[in-house]
């Protein structure tokens, strides 16, 4: 008797909607509860054509006439909509071939969309949403949620409502704190935001000033502040080398080799660092200073104090050219002082890399300078006492964590001190919100002898006029940078390339020496070009943004930035800071191509109006947001979803105050609240 085996059961298929929701981070009911609307649409009433105004989000019922495919400028579908009070135009730039026939026999329909045009010339709605007329109108505002391709609002809305019917939205903030800051209940706030009643203030819901929004933003900021306080407490419990820094002979010898007096701001910062190094828990300090303020010598003197105690120091920089600049300076300042300064980068040959790694592991290498090669497998330190991370926001958060953890792993119970440096000043509100577990030092004055930089805007049509002027200035002994955004031609961006510009300037100014520097050159080639420019064997250096930070040639007094409209604000400020380092009056010319976007206008106007790095940082934050500003964007983590640290500064102050009370009086509730909002992302706040 034969038996037939039943076919194995196929695994249960996950619907594509579920997969798309999971990609948005929507897994648990609580995830859905916190997936709050981007905006709201009012579908509770029917408008009439005679009541419309430009910019209005309107919903109308009527019939469609004159449906046609129009070929005037580009192929598009057009129609006339009519109700009892008047007519307006409809237009679809993207449409399905069957859409024309559907509209022609649609009869009475309901349309929704943004009204454009004017009462004089006629109104228009582009890509209106079309549905059946006569359907029951909702009695609340309709939430519009963040979504992804293929995930419709009705599907998302249905899932969120289902989750809200199941989830327990208990309040993680104690009643006393709710009362002190007049907070509505958490559950009430979440339900209001998903299903606002008709009586709610529509304007405050839209601009996120409604009490329900304020409660959500308070909770989010409170969780962040609790995490930062706990990070600081955790660091205070860790152990680090307690160093002897007074009367350091190596410190004094490096200072003597530097040969210039320190500014009061530099002396003040070094005093703060000395205090940190004498404690038994790790320094976690951010050193801020505008372009050219003298952060590198502060880093060198800090390194000297640690090296004097027989420990290693690592300096990590984001680009090879910046790391190499540090290496050359440190070699000069630590020359003949029995300190072995080594260089480690990805461009080293395998044999050279192994030799350097062996010296680092044995302790023979005292001061190690390099790029992210320092965090690669195979790099082990013998006695790492200090990590210095330059331009820390240029590294992804994961890279910064890797260096920190490499130090922890090699030191077992003792972890190294950490000094981060940034020439992009962090605005106060950003520091309060994201960097509360760091000690922040600021070098707020420039060394004597630095000349103010004049910034000029010039349209690209005047390029040859600029070149003629440049030819005269460089023939008289001045040196110039000419920065381009790309190395190779890109049809999409149509930007002038560094290679082409180099040839062009050579042809136009044959009597001058024109050099070329870009990121695809070998390290030795780059070093040779920079050395030639530093010793004035090159008059004009055409370069990509590899010269953005750390390059110091005092005789260079002219900076030309081609297609300046394509650069970020902080990047433009950094590039401008490559000049103004000597006695000659310096100028930065921003060459731009019309037409300019509003964003480009904002950036160029900011550069033209101020040289103040803190003001530029404030404007940059306003435009870019904190994630990108701090290098958090690369982590893929969105640290604040609802609060805006500039607009919600008062809420941030309240949350900081409440976090202290929570941790002291309600420690368990504090942990629960932090987990609700941060879910294991605490490390990102600490990097």
From TrEMBL:
EC number, UniProt record: 5.6.2.4
Pfam families (UniProt xref): DEAD, Helicase_C, RecG_dom3_C, RecG_wedge
Keywords associated with the record: ATP-binding, DNA damage, DNA recombination, DNA repair, DNA-binding, Helicase, Hydrolase, Isomerase, Nucleotide-binding
Gene Ontology terms describing biological process: DNA recombination; DNA repair
InterPro entries linked to this entry: ATP-dep_DNA_helicase_RecG, DEAD/DEAH_box_helicase_dom, Helicase_ATP-bd, Helicase_C-like, NA-bd_OB-fold, P-loop_NTPase, RecG/Mfd, RecG_dom3_C
MF (Gene Ontology): 3'-5' DNA helicase activity; ATP binding; DNA binding; hydrolase activity
Record-annotated Helicase C-terminal domain positions: 466-633
Catalytic activity of the protein: Couples ATP hydrolysis with the unwinding of duplex DNA by translocating in the 3'-5' direction; ATP + H2O = ADP + phosphate + H(+)
Alphabetized CDD domains for the sequence: DEXHc_RecG (cd17992), RecG_wedge_OBF (cd04488)
Domain (Helicase ATP-binding): residue spans on this chain: 276-443
Function: Plays a critical role in recombination and DNA repair. Helps process Holliday junction intermediates to mature products by catalyzing branch migration. Has replication fork regression activity, unwinds stalled or blocked replication forks to make a HJ that can be resolved. Has a DNA unwinding activity characteristic of a DNA helicase with 3'-5' polarity.
Family to which this protein belongs: Belongs to the helicase family. RecG subfamily.
Name listed for the protein in its UniProt record: ATP-dependent DNA helicase RecG
Source organism of this protein record: Pelistega suis
């Amino acid at each position: 008797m034969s038996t037939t085996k039943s076919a194995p059961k196929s695994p249960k298929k996950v619907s594509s909607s579920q997969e798309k929701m999971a990609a948005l981070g929507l897994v648990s009911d609580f995830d859905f509860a916190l997936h709050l609307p981007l905006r709201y649409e009012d579908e509770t009433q029917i408008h009439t054509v005679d009541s419309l105004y430009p910019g209005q989000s309107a919903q109308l019922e009527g019939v469609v006439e004159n449906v046609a495919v129009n070929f005037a400028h580009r192929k598009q579908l057009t129609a006339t909509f009519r109700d009892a009070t008047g007519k307006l135009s409809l237009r679809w730039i993207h449409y399905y071939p069957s859409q024309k026939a559907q509209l022609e026999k649609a009869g009475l329909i309901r349309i929704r969309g943004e009204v454009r045009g004017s009462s004089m010339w006629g109104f228009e709605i582009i890509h209106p949403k079309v549905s059946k007329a006569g359907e029951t109108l909702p009695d609340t505002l309709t939430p519009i949620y963040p979504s992804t391709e293929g995930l419709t609002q009705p599907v998302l809305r249905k899932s969120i409502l289902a989750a809200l019917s199941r989830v327990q939205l208990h309040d993680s903030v104690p009643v006393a704190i709710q009362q002190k800051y007049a907070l509505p209940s958490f559950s009430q706030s979440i339900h209001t935001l998903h299903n606002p009643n008709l009586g709610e203030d529509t304007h405050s819901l839209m601009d996120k000033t409604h009490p329900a929004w304020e409660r959500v933003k308070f909770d989010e900021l409170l969780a962040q502040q609790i995490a930062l306080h706990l990070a600081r407490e955790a660091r205070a419990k860790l152990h680090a080398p307690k160093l002897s820094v007074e009367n350091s002979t190596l410190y004094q010898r490096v200072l003597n080799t530097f040969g210039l007096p320190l500014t009061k701001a530099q002396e003040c910062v070094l005093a703060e660092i000395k205090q940190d190094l004498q404690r038994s828990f790790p320094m976690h300090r951010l050193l801020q200073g505008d372009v050219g303020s003298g952060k590198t010598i502060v880093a060198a003197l800090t390194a000297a104090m640690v090296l004097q105690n027989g420990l290693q120091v690592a300096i990590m920089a984001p680009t090879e050219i910046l790391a190499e600049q540090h290496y050359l300076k440190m070699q000069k300042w630590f020359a003949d002082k029995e300190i072995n300064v080594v260089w480690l980068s990805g461009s080293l040959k395998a044999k050279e890399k192994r030799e350097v790694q062996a010296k680092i592991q044995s302790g023979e290498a005292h001061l190690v300078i390099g790029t992210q090669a320092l965090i690669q497998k195979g790099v082990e330190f013998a006695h790492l006492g200090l990590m210095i991370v330059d331009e820390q926001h240029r590294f992804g958060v994961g890279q910064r964590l890797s260096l920190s953890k490499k130090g922890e792993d090699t030191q077992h119970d003792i972890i190294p001190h950490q000094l981060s440096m940034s020439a992009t000043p962090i605005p106060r509100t950003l520091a309060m919100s994201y960097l509360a577990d760091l000690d922040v030092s600021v070098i707020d004055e420039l060394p004597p002898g630095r000349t103010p930089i004049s910034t000029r805007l010039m349209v690209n049509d005047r390029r040859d006029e600029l070149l003629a002027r440049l030819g005269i200035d460089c023939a008289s002994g001045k040196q110039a940078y000419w920065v381009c955004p790309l190395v190779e031609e890109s049809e999409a961006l149509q930007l002038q390339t560094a290679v082409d510009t180099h040839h062009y300037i050579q042809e136009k100014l044959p009597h001058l020496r024109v050099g070329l520097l870009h990121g695809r050159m070998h390290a030795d080639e780059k070093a040779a070009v920079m050395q030639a420019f530093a010793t004035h064997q090159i008059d004009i250096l055409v370069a990509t943004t590899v010269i953005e930070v750390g390059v110091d040639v005092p005789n260079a007094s002219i900076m030309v930035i081609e297609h300046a409209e394509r650069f970020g604000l902080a990047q433009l400020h950094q590039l401008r800071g490559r000049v103004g380092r000597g006695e000659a009056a310096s100028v930065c010319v921003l060459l731009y191509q019309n037409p300019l976007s509003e964003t480009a206008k904002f950036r160029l106007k900011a550069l033209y109006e101020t040289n103040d790095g803190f003001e530029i940082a404030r404007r940059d934050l306003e435009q870019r947001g904190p994630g990108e500003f701090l290098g958090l964007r690369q982590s893929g983590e969105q640290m604040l979803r609802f609060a805006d640290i500039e607009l919600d500064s008062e809420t941030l102050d309240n949350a900081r105050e409440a976090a202290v009370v929570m941790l002291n009086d309600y420690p368990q509730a504090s942990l629960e609240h932090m987990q609700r909002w941060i879910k294991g992302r605490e490390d990102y706040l600490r990097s």
